[in-house]
Amino acid sequence: MNHVLYERPGWGSAMIEAQLALYGIAHERVPVAHLYSDEAARDAFRKINPAGQVPALVLPDGTLMTESAAITLHLADAARSDALVPAPGAAERPAFLRWLVFLVVQVYAPFAIGDRPEKFVPGAEAAAALAGKVRRLREDMWRVAEAAAGAPWFLGERFSALDVFVCTMTHWTPRRPWFDANAPKLARIAARADALPELAAVWRRNFPNG
CA–CA distance from 174 to each of 67, 117, 125, 178 (Å)? Predict the structure, then answer.
């Protein structure tokens, strides 16, 4: 049995699909409806992942894994590879773990609020104000990451899953032009990851408009 990835093109599942491709791990993709606009689909998907979110990855033994950081660490173990995750004892390991969790908690997680502010506060005006605050917070956190980013990759000379995350997440609000102007190191990392031939099909499927 292959790994089974529940995914929606352009969403967070793209980060996991890219890692599966880089490791050469056989997998099946199961498309998921728009979980924000289709409440029935969201409720149905909770039978797979009670949190109602993608990515969700079912392992060959039937175990469900969720949470992008956890899946990232598990795939490195399953592949017995340090290609995307520095091994314990590696000099880059502490920085990798710090920034992996930072990207997930400080940048990725707030999308659940910013994309649907009306679910958290009553009234259109309050929802718009909340969405604006979340957007500004996300931009501030991207600036923190920009200050720490190396070159040519986030960890310097060493490519890692952080670069996959950056490449994927810079497609989202505030989007690539903002990064060009405000976070040029991250923009260059994203562009370099865009150009990896091993990921050409993944990026084309998830971000067909570039």
Answer: 22, 16, 21, 6
pTM for this predicted structure: 0.94
Distance CA 163, CA 152 (A): 10
Among 111, 113, 4, residue whose Cα is nearest residue 48: 4
Strand-pairing partners, residue 7, are 31
CA distance 131 to 126: 9
Q: What is the pLDDT of residues 156-165, one digit of tens each?
A: 999 999 999 9
**Residues 6 or more apart whose Cβ sits within 8 Å of residue 27:** 2, 3, 4, 5, 17, 20
pLDDT digits over 151-193, tens only? 999 999 999 999 999 999 999 999 999 999 999 999 999 999 9
Is residue 189 within 8 Å of residue 152, measured between CB atoms?
Answer: yes
Q: Contact at 8 Å (CB) between 132 and 121?
A: no
